[in-house]
Amino acid sequence: MTENTYYTSCGERIRNPEAYAATGAPMHTGFTTKTGKRVRNPEAYAKSGRQLYTDKDINEVKSIYKVECQGGKKYIGETGDFDRRMDQHFSGRGAKVTQKFQPKSAKELERVPGYFAKEVEQEYTEKYIKKHGYNNVRGGTHTNSTTLNNHSDSDDSDDSDGSDDSFGNYDQYDDDCPYEHQPDWDIINENDHDW
């Protein structure tokens, strides 16, 4: 996937990151000393008996989600904290798309090891673009103005319902704003993925 070097929590280099990531075990890209200095060779440092301090676990489980927005627009995203991210989207502090097109509902699509999150988010984005048209879906690599301005697709569908496209405040705790997620999901869904 990438050319980074990954380590276990004990500082051992991971030789096959894709296979290791699929186990769901923690993965790190670096370590520090107790005083915060970067450790260049974690394996040797740990073998010398010194304590390693880890950075963020890049393989922490992530939620891939879809937000249904006003005007038939859809936003695909990934997050490590589904509830916090939904609060951001529904209160106007989320992605630019959900600021412009008021969120109506959201659903957690899948939970995956963090190492694969961007790849799976992109797969879902491409799937929804194919189904609903480029002008109606944002997510993955299709989120910024550069991709919007450089993309031309003549067979985009327009699912607009004629509603106002301006951003409006929406109370995420309102009964009109249900969003679904799978808090009890214990098993990683490996369907349709190459890992």
List keywords for this structure.
195 residues, alpha/beta, 2 domains, five-stranded mixed β-sheet, three-stranded antiparallel β-sheet, elongated
Description:
This protein has 195 residues and is of the alpha/beta class. The protein folds into two domains: 1-59, no CATH class; 62-180, 3-Layer(aba) Sandwich (GIY-YIG endonuclease), CATH 3.40.1440. 25% of the residues lie in helices and 18% in strands. The chain is built from six helices and eight strands. It has a five-stranded mixed beta sheet, with helices on both faces. Strands 2-1-3 form a three-stranded antiparallel beta sheet, with no helix packed on it. It is elongated and about 60 Å long. The termini are close together.
Order of adjacent strands in the largest pleated sheet: 7-5-4-6-8
Structural class: alpha/beta
Q: Provide the β-strand percentage band.
A: 15-25%
User: So, CATH architecture of the largest domain?
Assistant: 3-Layer(aba) Sandwich
**Mean residue pLDDT:** 78
Integer-rounded radius of gyration: 20 Å
Shape: elongated
Instruction: Kindly state the percentage of residues in helix.
Output: 10-25%
Span between termini: 11 Å
Tally of individual helices = 6
Biggest sheet record = 5 strands, mixed
CATH topology of the largest domain: GIY-YIG endonuclease
The topology string of helices and strands comes to: HEEHEEEHHEHEHE
Low-confidence stretches: 145-195
Question: What is the CATH class designation of the largest domain?
Answer: Alpha Beta
Number of strands: 8
List the domain count as a whole number.
Answer: 2
